[in-house]
Design brief:
By secondary structure, the protein is mostly helical. It has a single domain, classed as dinb family like domain (Four Helix Bundle (Hemerythrin (Met), subunit A), Up-down Bundle), CATH 1.20.120. It is 55% helix and 4% strand. The chain has a two-stranded antiparallel ribbon with strand order 1-2. Helix 2 crosses helix 4. The relative contact order is 0.17.
Length: 198
């Protein structure tokens, strides 16, 4: 999972120089520049959060974290619009050593509360995969990172509607991730519960 996240970040970093940053992205109201600003904050936050690592039990699960992101939507939107730091490759390099040394069994304190490191990295795979695909044109996707993101979103669905997990699992990972995050129209049978998050 750690390696998958780094590979996904590296794919995004290699893709950024090819982008027209003023072009509208797949996120309504955001340009490619705004998506990049949001992504660039992720390695910075990871380093900050890893510095809080402890053996204390976490207060939240993976599902809690992913389900709680909607509460931060307006703050995130405001943050990206005033961000001046969009050197994604530099941010990844600055986080690489901390990520490599992280104890995945420990807990860290994030903006939403404490969570196990391995669960937090799963949420970062969701962010990196989804927002990497939000660029126009999209960044390439690491297959393992995509699988981690798809599985994490299945966990959210399982917590809400376990009866629909089999239908979601039947979809290709990329289709499921797009549907679960509101990027495409949900398939028949899942429309009543999707998107799980945006």
């Amino acid at each position: 999972m750690r390696a998958a996240l780094l590979r996904q970040w590296d794919l995004i970093a290699a893709h950024v120089p090819t982008l027209d940053l003023e072009r509208p992205s797949r996120v309504a109201g955001w340009r490619n520049r705004d998506v990049l600003a949001h992504l660039t904050s992720q390695p910075h936050l990871l380093v900050r959060f890893l510095a809080t690592a402890s053996s204390e039990p976490p207060a939240m699960t993976l599902v809690d974290n992913l389900s709680g992101t909607a509460r931060f939507a307006s703050m995130i939107d405001e943050s990206v619009r005033r961000s001046e730091s969009i050197d994604f490759a530099a941010a990844v390099e600055a986080a690489r050593a901390s990520l490599a040394a992280a104890d995945l069994s420990q807990s860290i304190t994030t903006l939403q509360g404490s969570i196990r490191v391995d669960d937090y990295l799963r949420t970062r795979c969701v962010e990196a995969v989804v927002h990497g695909r939000d660029f126009v044109p999209p960044a390439p996707c690491d297959s393992d990172a995509l699988a981690v993101a798809a599985a994490a979103l299945l966990d959210v669905l399982r917590a809400r509607r376990p009866d629909l997990v089999a239908a979601a699992r039947a979809l290709p990972d990329d289709v499921w991730v797009d549907a679960a995050t509101g990027r495409v129209t949900p398939p028949d049978g899942l429309a009543g519960v999707l998107p799980l998050l945006r």
